[in-house]
Specification:
The complex is a heterodimer of chains A (352) and B (580). In chain A, the strands form five sheets. In chain A, strands 7-8-9-3-10-11 form a six-stranded mixed β-sheet, with helices on both faces. A five-stranded antiparallel β-sheet of chain A has the order 2-1-4-5-6, covered by helices on one side. Chain A has two domains: 226 residues, 3-Layer(aba) Sandwich (Rossmann fold), CATH 3.40.50; 112 residues, Nucleic acid-binding proteins (OB fold (Dihydrolipoamide Acetyltransferase, E2P), Beta Barrel). In chain A, helix 2 crosses helix 3. Chain A is built from eight helices and 22 strands. With 352 residues, chain A is α+β, with helices and mostly antiparallel strands. Chain B is mainly alpha-helical. Chain B has a domain of 226 residues: MetI-like fold. Chain B has 23 helices and no strands. In chain B, helix 14 crosses helix 23. The longest helix of chain B is centred in the N-terminal third of the chain and has 34 residues. Classes of the chains: A alpha+beta (352), B mainly alpha (580). Chains A and B meet through strand 5, strand 7 and helix 2 of A and helix 20 and helix 21 of B.
């Protein structure tokens, strides 16, 4: 059940925009496709919508095949709806007419249409503006119209194509939660395309991080952040330090410190193992700390930036390794000072 | 939930390919593509092919021959006409630029006073068809009896003429005052798009306003200048009306007059075809040249994005520029219009503004008595309306197919639509004559052949407008319809068509005005019963009925102006600015 993408692929000329993509959404689940531009996320979304035909693989919705190689149900017969990057609010129709459009296509009675349009406009707080034309609305209001128009038909799947990228920062923040709220209310299976990890983390049940036409990892935001599987995922979601270790018997030798070999979840190779360690995996202390869950060593402060809510330090460890870490505002260390640096070894994650 | 199912769950995947009926895959867009291709073959491919074929066909035996070319270019007189034509075209381009460039710059980039007045004046040049402007100038500057000469004689007591419109200079002047309008529009549009910051950058480095204009502004609009110069040249060498009025008395033979001679008795369609092929080649070569010139330099700076536009302060020079604009508008619109209207209300056009000379007889004559003029007005307006409608709808369908890439190779349709742009109007008429006038089609003397030719002639204008319109509609507007359950045709009906109303109406008017007055294409295609107003006017000139002719011209101008005014009311003043 739900929405299934199986070995999905799309080739443009000689380039595979999407290749062997597998993803299953449970009914009512909200999944984001997150990745840099050109990673194939929009191509994937447009294949789900039916605007692009896959060149390999298949798309299935609740056991109904929507598309396979060389055969595809057109978008108008898929029972989905979509929020577009440009909103695509029809300027020749009022807010109410825009929202009622899909309902009219479903041949509902006038009374029923009016009732449902009124309801959904209430939900997105636009009931005062029902008879305005789109040109008389602000960007945020247009976005709400798009949302209402897409949701009002109770689609089987809701597709969102970078819907917030045209809004200013404050509005974007607000609309993230708006989308989350609407999803919590209607539980529509949703696919959300974005390159903004913040948006993805606020809205999604799970995030699929895409790169070069393939999914690198699908997990909840919490798991993605704390246990990224690949270097790409670790660097795309949040900030991190990549440190390389040399396996030496029971230990992993880093520049300036070592960790037990048990930190590796798969056996290390001869050449070296790459680890991702988030800035907050390191803590800075003026005195040598006791009871720490990992190695402690002396470091040298190279750079620092005060950002109000925290300090951002660059600290040198060992011979030629520098890491970035964060510290609370009260933890003041001058450049050139040598505080103790502690690592929570549970937050050292092996890259694959 | 839809009931369309491709296959059942068990057999999905790569092993068993789901069965999809032919009809599921067959899209109406393919059918539309076929239909459009067919229409374009009728309108463009067939006539042009036939023109080429005819030029190599022996009129008697029907076999292959080169004799037509020898016939066409074997005489020195015929070659001279071609050279004269190119010479005239070049001179007209230069003079038109002298008219259009300062006015366009003044109206868009400077603080020249009364800009709207100047714009309206220039717009008058668009409404007045070339042959009426020409007739106005014959009344103004005809030897001896022309108004200018008579005023001069009255002032000085001399009996010599100072101006003679029946000369090379006269021909070039009348051409230029009728053609600089297009240049003005295209160059103005380029000036409007120009970002002031580019000029500011020159100013801050120490360049004064004139230097900035010369070093920065004009080079940036050079593509538009070149493009419009080329367009003017092409229109000029293929224009029939003005040479018909002036070049014969001026003893300055040009190509169009020679072509008309081939079309008079005995009809030599094959020779005419052969004679017009070089005209086509010149046109194609010039367009190629333009592409090469423009491709070499990066002119991408001319974009509409960002930066406010500030006007250049000219100081006292603004009045000089305004004076010059008045002069140009006077030459091109006010003076010919004035003498034309005076003649229309006069018993004798030389009589002047006296009460005893005033009469309405001319109007009475052309509206109610003359055998064909009343009918001709109706024919012209009807043909204009029909061709504009057909051209706009056709161009819209094709731009949609091309812009949305509904079928592979759809770009070809777009190129075909623009092809008539390189076909001089009079050559188009010959091509149409060659393929549709004669048996087996035998459309000669019908409204159909005129309408077909007009649609073809104005298809590029329609396509440019339609294309810009479709491009302005984000594809997501339609995708939003489709994802909600509406088909493509539903999306076109509910979203695309309503959004295109305004640009389409503008395109319609842009075609209607010249189509209702078209002469060059009509001249060889009209039959005794399908005479259009322009042809009737030309006949009246030959009969020397200047007052009646002026009255008919005035009626035509009043109708067209009224329609344009309505257009401006509903569409806004800027509808003339083409976005291409």
């Amino acid at each position: 059940m739900g929405l299934e993408l199986e070995n999905l692929g799309r080739r443009f000329g000689t380039i595979d925009a999407v290749l062997n993509l597998n993803l299953t959404l449970e009914e009512g689940e909200f999944v984001s496709l997150l990745g840099p531009s050109g990673c194939g996320k929009t191509t994937t979304l447009r294949m789900i919508a039916g605007f692009l035909d896959p060149t390999s693989g298949s798309i299935t919705l609740n056991n109904r095949v929507l598309a396979t190689t060389g055969a595809s149900i057109p978008p108008e017969k898929r029972g989905m709806s979509m929020i577009f990057q440009s909103y695509a609010i029809w300027p020749n129709m009022t807010v109410a007419q825009n929202v009622a459009f899909g309902l009219k296509l479903r041949k509902l009675g006038t009374a029923e249409i009016n009732r449902r349009v009124g309801e959904i406009l209430e939900v997105v707080r636009l009931n005062q503006l029902a008879n305005r034309y789109p040109s008389e609305l602000s960007g945020g209001q247009q976005q709400r119209v798009a949302l209402a128009r897409a949701v009002v038909i109770r689609p089987e799947v809701l597709l969102l194509d970078e819907p917030l990228s045209n809004l200013d920062a404050a509005l974007r923040e607000e609309m993230r939660f708006e989308i989350k709220r609407i999803h919590d209310e209607f539980r529509i299976t949703s696919v959300y395309v974005t390159h903004d990890q913040g948006e993805a983390m606020v809205t999604s049940d799970r995030i699929a991080v895409m790169n070069h036409g393939q999914i690198e990892q699908v997990d909840t935001p919490f798991e993605l952040y704390n246990w990224p599987k690949t270097k790409f995922v670790a660097s795309f979601i949040g900030r991190t330090n990549f440190l390389e270790a040399r396996p030496a018997g029971e230990r992993l030798e880093f520049d300036g410190f070592s960790l037990p070999a048990s930190c590796c979840d798969t056996p290390p190779q001869q050449s070296g193992v790459l680890f991702s360690m988030r800035p907050q995996a390191f803590t800075l202390h003026a005195q040598e700390p006791a009871n720490v869950n990992g190695p402690a060593m002396k470091g040298t402060v190279l750079e620092r930036t005060f950002l109000g809510e925290h300090w951002d330090y660059t600290v040198r460890l060992g011979e030629a390794t520098s890491i970035r870490t964060v510290a609370p505002p009260a933890a003041v260390f001058e450049i050139g000072s040598t505080p103790w640096v502690c690592l929570d070894q549970q937050q050292a994650v092996q890259m694959h | 939930m839809s009931t369309t199912t491709l296959t059942n769950v068990a057999s999905r995947g790569g092993a068993t390919r789901p069965r999809v009926g032919f009809l599921n895959r067959f899209q109406p867009s393919s059918l539309a593509f076929l239909g459009m291709s067919l229409v374009l073959v009728v309108l463009i491919v067939a006539p042009l092919t036939m023109l080429l074929v005819k030029s190599f066909t022996d009129p008697v035996t029907g076999g292959f021959t080169l004799a037509n070319y020898i016939d066409a270019y074997g005489k020195a007189r015929h070659v001279q006409a071609l050279i004269n034509t190119l010479y005239m075209g070049a001179a007209v381009v230069v003079l038109s630029l002298l008219f259009a460039l300062p006015l366009a710059w003044g109206c868009t980039r400077t603080d020249m006073p009364f800009k709207n007045f100047v714009r309206a004046g220039v717009f008058g040049a668009f409404i007045i068809p070339p042959y009426l402007g020409g007739i106005g100038w014959i009344l103004l500057a005809g030897p001896n009896s022309g108004w200018i000469n008579r005023v001069w004689q009255g002032l000085t007591g001399s009996d010599t003429s100072i101006v003679n419109i029946f000369s090379f200079e006269g021909l070039v002047l009348v051409m230029a005052i009728n053609l600089y309008f297009t240049m003005f529009v295209l160059i103005s549009a380029a000036f409007e798009m120009l970002n002031s910051e580019l000029e500011d950058a020159a100013n801050i480095l120490g360049a004064g306003p004139i230097r900035t204009a010369w070093k920065v502004t004009f080079p940036l609009v050079l593509p538009s200048i070149l493009g419009s110069a080329l367009l003017t040249f092409l229109v000029c060498i293929a224009l029939y009306g003005v040479p018909a009025l002036i070049s014969i008395p001026a003893r300055f033979p040009v190509v169009v007059i020679q072509l008309a001679e081939f079309f008079s008795f005995p009809l030599r369609i094959e020779t005419a075809a052969a004679y017009s092929i070089p005209l086509l080649l010149i046109t194609a070569a010039l367009l190629l040249l333009q592409r090469m010139i423009l491709a070499r330099k990066g002119y991408t700076a001319v974009t509409g994005k960002g930066g406010e536009r500030r006007l250049v302060r000219l100081g006292p020079w603004r009045w000089v520029l305004f004076g010059y604009s008045l002069f140009v508008v006077g030459l091109s619109v006010a003076m010919p219009l004035l003498v034309l209207v005076m003649a229309a209300f006069g018993r004798s056009w030389v009589g002047g503004l006296t009460l005893s000379n005033l009469t309405f007889e001319n109007f009475d004559y052309v509206l109610f008595e003359h055998a064909t003029s009343q009918q001709a007005i109706v024919t012209s307006l009807g043909l204009g309306a029909v061709s504009a409608t057909v051209a706009v709808l056709l161009a819209l369908s094709i731009s949609y197919i091309v812009q949305r890439r509904l079928v592979p190779l759809s770009g070809v349709l777009g190129y075909l639509c623009m092809a008539p742009f390189v076909i001089p109007g009079i050559v188009l008429a010959i091509a149409f004559y060659a393929v549709y006038a004669l048996p087996p089609v035998a459309l000669y003397g019908t409204y159909t052949i005129l309408a077909l030719a007009f649609v073809t002639r104005f298809l590029p204008i329609a396509y440019t407008t339609g294309s810009a319109g479709v491009r302005a509609i984000h594809p997501e507007m339609e995708e939003a319809v489709r994802i909600l359950g509406g088909g493509r045709l539903y999306a076109i009906r509910k979203v695309v068509a309503p959004l295109l109303k305004r640009p389409l109406a503008a395109g319609w008017l842009l075609i209607f005005v010249p189509a209702a007055q078209e002469l060059s294409t009509a001249i060889f295609l009209v039959g005794p019963k399908t005479r259009v107003v322009s042809v009737v006017l030309l006949d009246m000139t030959e009969e020397g009925e200047m007052e009646k002719l002026a009255a008919l011209g005035t009626v035509l101008l009043v109708i067209i102006t009224a329609m344009v005014m309505i257009g401006i009311r509903t569409l806004g003043r800027d509808f003339m600015v083409r976005r291409s």
